[in-house]
What does this fold into?
Amino acid sequence: MHVDEATVRRIARLARIKITDEEAKGLEGELSAILDWVEQLEEVDTDSVEPMTRVVPIQLKQREDKVTDGEKADEIVANAPMSEDNFFVVPKVVE
Amino acid sequence: MSRMTDLTKLTLAEARDGLAKKDFTSTELTDAHIKAIESGNSELNVYVLPTPEHALEQAKASDMRLAKKGNAGELEGLPLGIKDLYCTKGIRTTACSNILDDFQPAYESTVTQNLWDAGAVMLGKLNNDEFAMGSSNETSAFGPAVNPWRRKGSTDKLVPGGSSGGSSAAVAADLCLAATATDTGGSIRQPAALTGTVGIKPTYGRCSRWGIVAFASSLDQAGPLTKTVRDSAMMLKVMASHDPKDSTSVDADVPDYEATLNDGIKGLRVGVPKEYRIDGMSEEAVALWEKGIAWLKDAGATIHEISLPHTKYALPAYYIIAPAEASSNLARYDGVRYGLRKPGKDLIDTYEETRSAGFGAEVKRRVLIGTYVLSAGYYDAYYLKAQKVRTLIKGDFDKAWDEVDVVLTPTTPSPAFAFGEKSGDPLQMYLEDIFTVTVNMAGLPGISVPAGLSKEGTPLGLQLIGKPFDEATLLRVGQSIEDAAGRLAITERWWG
It folds into this structure.
């Protein structure tokens, strides 16, 4: 599968990673090589195979529907690059 | 005799026994390691954050508990290194990525909490590939950790493996008694093989993933890197637990692994998979594999050739599943709630600038691959296909377990390589995990045990793969290999 530069840019946009022209060129080759290589999976007949969803068959546990956590806004914003009155501060989103 | 140096050479079990006999105190033991880190870390770059004051406080508390009968925990007073992927409360945790910046968790990972509850002492946070993505520790934002092993007659620096390269190198160089590590595609076993240490990746679900920085959630598992098989048994017993905070952690009894270590392997059925005889494997790895087979036979096991027909598809399927899960997990690094922020002209631009500045090249590559395979129209062709292949890989093992109890393979195709040797070509680097990655795909336990030296004088390891939750058997067979091979010793301590 060849990934062209436009696709690399589209994917980078979806992943919210800014890339330079030089990076885009390099990634074009690298991503194409990796996707070419994984294409060998097409040799495998998986028509009647279920996708694996868990490695061991376990029943998910349930707990009582009770609040067990909270009341720690200070801790939650403690590592924020910008915060004010226990809110995260971001650039203006709505004009 | 220089007693302080000698204390760092002890195994975890020897140090435990020495503390119990009051041959030395935890403070002396911890201090010896702190001094070793002070003199060796600038060359080896294994600790990205030494925490000597914290360690001495813990050691002092341990000494008080050791002084009173019946108060000591299972790992009381024993100094460990912690991979920087484990969140440690109030102590900087970065996953060796710039994007986490100066992140100080407000919580402790379950596995490390288990260690502290057992009395262990933390010497500091250990280097790893950024977000555990790599096989050489070269993708770390702090620069690579260095393997204490060197080729005969050479002073070239070799990689310690990855992603748990700081853990493997620190244990091999006696800068901690044992270390925590994590394994998503081979990140415990491959570094163990390249540094002459023991590393076990437990069954998926054996250890809680809570508080460990996530890479690929259906594959990630915590485990120890240690000097001996016995030390791994000690560490795993404490690290493993059922944790309500991780719904994938399994509520199963954790056996006393040490108690059955020397029970022997008479009658044990060992499988040797023919698909692991790949092109490009070094002659010495093949020879060592043969030697391993002979050792186990001599110890009373029977050897059976088996077939795991989907082996060759494990690595390509992994390179769909792991990046897909990583792209989803790493979406949380947005420059808003924690970590680095690079201001942009609006919110989207801030995300893009932050993630561009914060992630290294390999992480970007994998996030982009993951985003691509999960993007509209491609999900079935890539992710779903890979998950189906995964079912087939697991099925290969399920069949094998009718015939054998464990599987024996080399851990890696070749010994430690030099910096830069493989970092130019992502695919070449990915091949480092060719023998280890199937184990993660099937969720099984795997252990790497040092088995001998290459002609360059550097270590090679053998891998044992076991049935789900049968770590006890893996450790027991690992002990037989260690008994036959002997421990590998570094002849020259060049790092000060």
In short: Chain B touches chain A through 67 residues (CB under 8 Å).
